[in-house]
Amino acid sequence: MKYTLLFLILIYTKGCDSQKNLSEDFNGNWKITTINNEKIANVDITKCTINIENSTITMSVGCNNHNGDLKMIENKIQISNVYATEMYCDKLAALEKKIKQSLPMVSDYKLEKDKLLLLNIEGDTVISLIR
Q1: In a domain, 18, yes or no
Q2: Are 28 and 49 in contact (CB under 8 A)?
Q3: Which residues are within 8 A (CB) of 44 and not within 5 positions of it... i.e. 6 or more apart?
């Protein structure tokens, strides 16, 4: 009985550590490099802010902010309730439409050091981010 309790405590503690590490790995500002395999011409004006504690994600390619609710479920990611500000930006309109369409398609991720790939259910990269 003692060993079972000790084992369960170790598993629970490890789970808390991995959630903390996940937050540290994900949280903060990222730059958007591709959306649906389309390279972003001026990466420096893009921004993606992830906040695991508040369950939010915000993206911009230089005009509107695209916001959504972010959930981490069993090492998967879900983005829902996507909405955006509505300023008209002629040169960025097509790219902004892709962000709004792409965010709800995200269901998984791949994190490699300073690169985060947001993947769809088939495992294809929908949006790629760098620190």
Answers
A1: no
A2: yes
A3: 31
Residue 76 lies in a domain: yes
Sign (positive/negative) of CA torsion 28, 53, 86, 93?
positive
Three-state DSSP at 52 gives coil
Grade residue 20 by pLDDT with cuts at 50, 70 and 90: very low
Neighbouring CB atoms inside 10 A of 48's CB total 21
The CA–CA distances, whole Å, from 31 to 21, 47, 106, 107, 117 equal 20, 5, 17, 20, 12
- Amino acid, res. 101: Q
Q: The tokens of 14 are what?
A: 């490890």
Domain count, the chain: 1
Q: Strand pairing partners for 82? A: none
> Cβ distance 57 to 49 under 8 Å?
yes
Q: Please, what is the end-to-end C-alpha distance for the chain in angstroms? A: 46
Per residue in 45-68, pLDDT (tens digit) is 999 999 999 999 999 999 999 999
Domain that holds residue 34: 27-130
